[in-house]
Amino acid sequence: MQWTLVIPLKPLNRAKSRLSDTAGDGVRPGLALAFAVDTVAAALACPGVADVVVVTDDTEAARELAALGARIVADDPRAGLNAALAHGAAVVRAARPRTPVAALNADLPALRPMELARVLAMAGQFPRAFLADSAAVGTTLLAASPGHPLLPSFGTDSRARHRASGAVELSLDAVESVRQDVDTGDDLRAALALGVGPRTAAVAARLPARGQ
After folding, report:
1. 60-69 own/partner pairs: CB under 8 Å, 24+ apart
2. Residue at 212 is within a domain
3. What is the average pLDDT value for the chain, to the nearest integer?
4. Which end of the chain is more exposed for a tag (fewer CB within 10 A), N or C?
5. How far, in Å, CA of 172 to CA of 153, rounded?
6. Does 30 map to a domain?
7. Residue 206 and residue 114: Cα distance in Å, rounded?
C-alpha cells in the first residue's frame, strides 16, 4: 500500500513558541523550517510513501519543501491544525478517492524512512489508526485506509481523543523516530540523541549550550 502523507505547517514566524527556553525569536523560524525539511525529506524517502502534501501558507517553507518534491496546498480554511489536515486530506481524496491518507507531524527531525514504513504497514491493517508521541499523550501520525475518513483530532491529549474516535492505537517497538516530535527544549535534546537530519543538525549546532 502506497500512502499519501499530509503534513501541516503553520507560518514559521508563529511556530515552536514552546522552544523559547532553547531558541530565541530570531532562531525559532529557521529551526521550525529545519524540522519540516528533514521530516519531508525522510517521508519522501520512505518506500511506503507515494507522495507528500504539505498544507501551509508560509511562502518560504512552501518554496523549500516543493523543491524537495512535496506538493503544496494552501491552508484555505485558516482555522487551525485539524481544519488544515482535513482540508489537505479532502484535496487528496478529491483527485484519488481510494488513496490511503496519513497525517504526519512536521516536527519529526529524527524521522527514519524505514521506521515510518513499519508504522504505515501496520496502519494499513485497520480502517483508522494512530501512533502516540514519545510522551504518550499526543499523536504524531493518524492514518485512514481507503474508503475511510481521516477525522483528525490533534492537539492537547490527542491520544485519548483519537482512541475515543475509534482509531486503533498502534503498538510498535523501535519506531521512536516516528514518535519523537519536538515542542520543547527537552524534546529537541531527545531528537538530537536519536540523530536528526542534516538541516536540523546544522541549525542546532548554532544554538547556545544549555545553561549558557
Report:
1. 60/12, 60/33, 61/9, 61/12, 61/33, 61/36, 64/33, 64/37, 65/9, 65/36, 65/37, 65/40, 68/37, 68/40, 68/41, 68/44, 69/44
2. no
3. 95
4. C
5. 21
6. yes
7. 29
